[in-house]
Amino acid sequence: MIPQREKLSELYRRHAGNTERIVRAYANAERRGEVARPKGAARLDADAYARALLAEGLRKGWLVAGR
Residue 11, Cβ neighbours under 10 Å: how many? Predict the structure, then answer.
């Protein structure tokens, strides 16, 4: 499995920051079992979790196009 931040960073670069494409691609990767979700995040569906993770990455600065 690929770490969440690594997968999201890859998708952020691939989709040039396009929020909808990133969310869709990340949620699909999660459904395919490519990334694991922490135990405490089960209340969100895959799309909502992808949006939350994307927002966190942008807010906290670990999600940067050049990384």
Answer: 21
Express each pLDDT in 10-47 by its tens digit: 999 999 989 999 999 999 999 999 998 877 777 889 99
How many angstroms separate the most distant Cα atoms in the chain? 32
Which runs of consecutive H residues, i.e. helices, occur in the chain?
4-14, 19-31, 46-60
Report the C-alpha gap between 38 and 16 in whole angstroms: 26
pTM for the model stands at: 0.87
pLDDT tens track for 48-58: 999 999 999 99
